[in-house]
Amino acid sequence: MTTTGSSDELRFPEGFLWGTATAAHQIEGGNTNNDWWAFEHADGTPVIEPSGDACDSWNRWEQDLDLVAKLGLNSYRFSLEWSRIEPAPGEFSTVALDRYKQMVTTARDRGILPVVTFHHFTTPSWLAERGGWESSEAPDRFGEFTAKAAAHLGDEIGMACTINEPNIVALMGFVLGAFPPGVAMDFGRYDLCCEQLNAGHRRSVEALRAAPGSYPVGLTLSMAELVGHEGGEEELARFQETVEDRFLRNTVGDDFIGVQTYTRFHFTNSGYQVAIDPSARMTPMGYEFYPEAVGATASRAAAVTGLPVIVTENGVSTADDSERIEFVDRALRSVHAAIEDGVDIRGYTLWSLLDNFEWALGYSQHFGIVEVDRTTFARNPKPSGVFFGRVARSGVLGAPPVGS
Ligand code: FCB
User: Fold this and answer.
1) Is residue 4 part of a domain?
2) For a pocket test of ligand 1, which of 223, 351, 356, 357 has the largest count of ligand atoms closer than 8 A to its C-beta?
3) Using CA atoms in the order 299, 305, 307, 308, what is the torsion angle rounded to 10 degrees?
4) Residues 315-344 pLDDT 10s
5) 168 lines ligand 1 (CB under 6 A)
6) What CATH number does residue 362 fall under?
7) Which DSSP helix (H) or strand (E) runs through 18?
8) Ligand 1 mean position to 150 CA, how many Å?
């Protein structure tokens, strides 16, 4: 139960997870053996710069965990780089597995719940060469990798996310051409990839359930608030089914649904639009600045799946950190309102701990609550991190910041 203290204060439930998230390829650096590295270095892709050393988190992971702890957060979501763990089919690296095990146990030692993602956009080169997620062997291969990694990490895992945003992997890879394999407008291949990712999720859940330990297991999905306008109803329904609901329906028996939201989309009689009002406030990602979307998506995810919700990603790209404070404050208010309405939301994870490699957009975006010097890799927490940490420590969101 949430309670309201002073009229402007919002209290979150006891045990609420307050986290921040990263992904291996976006922060580790030197992940040369996956499809993204190849895509970054191929001619004719939209990637503006390669990931290179990223944030050097392969070496600085302990500093990252220290930052999470120091800020006052109680969970950290990070991903395993499949191509490091299984550099060739069936060949597993003990060194890589040991490193991730160390991350999980060190997080526990710092009082941080390790939320482990098993696939966050990158696929090993050997599997990409055999067709990536389109290949008929991909779901089983992913299941085998999950089993091996889960056995090594054991019951220190706090929570497991199988696949990060399968809908974005398929959409960006086969419709928008901005992720590997860089194919545009091929809806047949998009559908096939979606089916395979859904099968991969199920294999991975089975493997996690059979592994030592017992922790919540779920999928994370990219969801936007879908806003219908006159004449846009059919297009909205089509988008909702083909991009979101086909994945939401594949979560039966899971322990939670991870919701990842950045904005809302509009559907009118001329189709899909990122914004309606020409003067709408936009972010550097080209999204409408609309923090309240997360309350709506979390509510819809809960209604469709019947599962508890963890917001596994939410955040904003901005070079003006005070805008991030406003965004998080407003987003949390919408999450709190949904909880008050009876939606079972158990955690909120801010993307991202670090300013990092934003896929095709390289290092041009700033999602972090910690700034990273691109030459020295020195980390410097931003005021938004301090703000978010204060809310996390107290479980209370205070009165709206002055000026908002
Ligand atoms: C999500 C991704 C994450 C990051 C944010 C901005 O779609 O899961 O890796 O790129 O967007």
Assistant:
1) no
2) 351
3) -20
4) 999 999 999 999 999 999 999 999 999 999
5) yes
6) 3.20.20.80
7) strand 17-21
8) 23
